[in-house]
Amino acid sequence: MKIKPRKRLFLGLLLSLEFVFALVLFLIWLIPSSGYEIFGRSLSIFWGWVFFIVLIIFTLGILFLVTTILKGREVRGAGWLRGVLVRYLLPVITGVGKFFGIPKDDIRRSFIEINNELVRSSSFKVPPRRILILMPHCIQRDICPYRITVSVNNCRQCGKCDFNGLTRIADRFGIDMTVATGGTLARRVVVETKPELIVGVACERDLASGIVDTYPIPVIGILIDRPEGPCINTRVNVDTVNNVLETFLSEHTFADKKKAGKAAAC
Fold first, then answer.
1. pLDDT on residue 251
2. Is the dihedral of CA 95, 100, 105, 106 positive or negative?
3. What is the pLDDT of residue 265?
4. Comparing C-alpha atoms, which of 202, 205, 209, 198 is closest to residue 236?
5. How far apart are CA 122 and CA 239, in angstroms?
6. What is the pLDDT of residue 34?
7. Which of 77, 156, 181, 196 fits a disulfide with 130 by CB distance 3.0 to 4.6 angstroms?
8. Whole-angstrom distance, CA of residue 3 vs CA of residue 14
C-alpha cells in the first residue's frame, strides 16, 4: 500500500516541523556548550539529553504514523497518535503550511485522509444505533420545496440530489442521519446522541473542525464535491458512504438483515 499524495502533504509538513524542532534544540544545546562558562558543562549535557529525547519521540511518532498508514492497521502502542494529531498537530502544521504558501484546504484534506486511516486502523465494529451520519444541508437542491433540515424523512427521494441514495442507505441499515445547518447544531446532536462513530460529510473546513471538536469520538470524514461552488447543490459519492458504513458495522447487522429478508420472502 502506497501513501497517497494527500497524505504525503501532511507527512511532509510534519517532517519539516521536526527539522525546525531539531534545529532549535540544537541551538539551545550549542549556545551554552560554546560559552556561558558560568553555567558549567552540566547545562550543555542537560540540553543535549533534552534534544536527544524530544527528537527520538518525534521521530518515533512519525514512524508509527507512516507504519499505520502503510499497514492499514493500528501498530501496537500507537493508539495515542490520533489524539496528538487532532489536538496538537493540525494547528501547528497549518502554520507550517502557511509559511510555505500551501493552501489551508490542501492541508485539511491531507489531515482528514490521515485521520480516516487512523480510525480505520483500529478495526472496531459498531452497531447501527451507535453510528451517526452528519450531512450538510447544501447537498439538497436549492429549489427543493421539501426542506430536510427539519427531518430527513421529508425527502421524497425524487433522485434529483444525493439525499435519494443517502436516505435509502440510512433506512436499510437503521442508522440515524442528521442534516446539520452549522457547527453548533452538529455539536448539539453529537452531545444528545452520544455516538460511537460519526460519518461526517462536509467541506474541508467543517470536517477538520468537526474532527477536532468531537474528539475522542472517532470520525470518518467524506468530502463533498462542489460543481456549482461552495454551499449550493453540492454532491457526495453515495457508494463511498455505503462502503464506510459496511466497514464499521458489526457482523450481526448483516446477519439480521439476511434473516429479515428471508422472513419477508416467506
1. 66
2. negative
3. 47
4. 202
5. 22
6. 57
7. 196
8. 14
What pLDDT is recorded for position 63?
76
Q: Which of 81, 82, 111, 80 lies closest to 94 in space, CA to CA?
A: 111
Answer for the pair 1, 90: CB distance below 8 angstroms, yes or no: no
Length of the chain: 266
Query: How open is the CA angle 246-249-254, to the nearest 5 degrees?
Result: 80
CB 196 within 8 A of CB 220: no
Residue with cell 502533504: 9
Q: Do 224 and 139 meet the contact criterion of CB atoms below 8 Å apart?
A: yes
List, for the chain, all residue ranges whose pLDDT scores fall below the cut of 50: 1-3, 38-39, 254-255, 258-266
Taking the whole predicted model, whether its pTM rises above 0.85 is answered as no
Residue 249, strand partner residues: 126
Quote the CA–CA distance of 179 and 138 in Å, as a whole number. 9
- Which 3-state string (H, E, C) describes the chain? CCCCHHHHHHHHHHHHHHHHHHHHHHHHHHHHHHCCHHHCHHHHHHHHHHHHHHHHHHHHHHHHHHHHHHHCCCCCCCCCHHHHHHHHHHHHHHHHHHHCCCCHHHHHHHHHHHHHHHHHHCCCCECHHHEEEEEEHHHCCCCCCCCCCCCHHHCCCCCCCCHHHHHHHHHHHCCEEEEECCHHHHHHHHHHHCCCEEEEEECHHHHHHHHHHHCCCCEEEEECECCCCCCCCCECCHHHHHHHHHHHECHHHHHHHHHHHHHHHC
pLDDT value, residue 85: 79
